[in-house]
Write a structure and sequence with these properties.
Blueprint (H helix, E strand, L loop, with lengths): L1 H28 L2 H4 L3 H29 L5
Length: 72
């Protein structure tokens, strides 16, 4: 169960990063006056969150796969 919780939290981090990247992309075209000064922060934070989220899920899944015992 702790593995499932860790994966779900990391997926939520990935989702937050995706939302930040989407806001940054929309900010390039639609809300330049409002989001203009925050575009760099949105892009860097979004990319970092997606990288950490997906990398963490990969790492947790890889370690979990090593602990699985299969029946003969």
């Amino acid at each position: 169960m702790p593995i499932l919780i860790a994966i779900m939290l990391l997926k939520l981090l990935t989702l937050a990063g995706s939302i930040a990247l989407t806001a940054g992309f929309v900010g390039l075209f639609a809300f330049k006056d409002t989001l203009g000064s925050h575009l760099t922060t949105l892009w860097l934070g979004g990319l970092l969150a997606v990288a950490v989220g997906e990398g963490g899920v990969w790492l947790v899944g890889r370690r979990a796969a090593k602990t699985i015992e299969t029946e003969p």
